[in-house]
Amino acid sequence: MSRIPLSQSARVSPESVHPPLRSRAATGTVEVTLVLRHGSPLPTVAQLCADPPRRPLTHDEFEAKYGTDPKHLKTVRAFAKKHALRVVSEQRARGYVVLQGTPAAMGRAFGVDLRRYTHGPTSYLTHTKPVTLPRALHGVAEWVLGLDTRPLVTHNAASLPVPRELAKHAGVRSYTAPQVANLYRYPRNTGEGQCVGIIELAGGYLPADLTQSLESVGVKRTAPVVNVGPNTAGRFDTASNAEVTMDVELVASVCPGATVVVYNAGSKDYSLRDYHRVLAEAISDRVNLPSVLTTSWSFYEGSLIQQGEELAFDRLFIEAALLGITVCAASGDLGSQVPVNGHSPTGAITVAATSYPAASALVLGCGGTTMEALGDVLHHERVWNRLGEAMSMGVLGNTSTAAGASSGGVSTMNALPLYQRGMGVPDLVTSSWKNGVFSISRGTGRGVPDVAANADLHTGYQIVFKGQQGVAAGTSAAAPMWAALIVRLNEALGERVGFLHPRLYRLVSEAEPVVRRITQGGNGAYFASHETLWNACTGLGTPDGEALLAGLRKLQRRKH
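-> structure tokens emitted (560 positions)
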């Protein structure tokens, strides 16, 4: 049977990336997500940036307009039956089908050479041949997730929480999340009637920690915290547990009137498929109906990520924009330089690269600052950068280095959106060495981040972790703080903010004081200054919540 290769689906041989490496024939059961074509073409990212949705669609409206053609689902069922694969679930509204089968059956179905590779404690499934599809699926299937389970997704926290007393003795000043919200002048409401979703890939939080944390900051919640998926705070997953705990405690304390839903993939391999699955679950949730999502998990743009994989995620964020769901994401905690595979003798190099999903033009990328407050007044902020002044502190039985910096830069895989034109996003400069000739080329790309919030551990957030008072921070805190702000904005406006970027950048370009510009500091390759409205460290700046609410109300009146 004639087959069609899926563009850019080949993989670099793992042996060239991580020697020494052991491999064996794959065994057990393999589960994949087949991403299908929508019934009607979705608007592109560029189209949404130029013409944002005027009102959010309901889930029923989205399904009626974009749901997968039933004939395509029938074709997929026939394909699965022919190749001895089991259909686990179908999502017509969202355009994907989950299939299950043996490695041999998957290999025959998609034309790949699946093997199980082991590198130290890490074990994963991957292939080197490109994925191929039968002609019957041409124009039906767009991508396959799950044939490569390498641990490509990570959380952004550069350091673990430190005990509060130890941090205090080390000169660290910490704040409660409600205090930071007040310093940023969040609207004076509680998020009543709203729902905010927190995206987690693994780990969990202890309900007793959340209860103790809320009591310590004097907050009484009037809405539930709901878990969708496992909430397993495993003993040996300290970093992931700390991530989940901080996310939940910050949002729960700043928005006590909003329902908080924790969507957890319970991933064992930190794969792209698991991340896609949990995001899809949250965006398509017809029960809780979140209007805001926050994620502190990401993958770096680089040699291991294919354009088709990002496009599969972009489909989700297009759907979120159409449904009026705002998505906030941490920009990262490693400054401008991040580790990506460079096929070097050490297996990795550091380059100026952005992390995704903050690099999506439909996601609000959140960078970090160092905050200085005098009483109840925010005195000064600068770009968070502690990479050159690491400080080791004990971390609840472990040790941690209190270092990090706000990540940002220019995306190599996402185009410069219309709303960022003229805002000061620098050129994307790439270099190459070929046949003894060194060359440099210039282009444009999406600038990351969009905004920022307090993220320095030296001015961190007070949390409770493992029953102990601690201090945590990072852009992993900035994203949920922005999500909490948008929840309050939604309540105050009486409607979903949704895809915020075009209005936010418009307000800034019109000199509305909706953000505090950050003009001092840098993250390595990029620096803040007075010369541009935007920078690749903190984006447009940190929020002035009341001013942002007033600006959005002004635009709201123009619309009507």
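The two ends are 57 Å apart (CA to CA).
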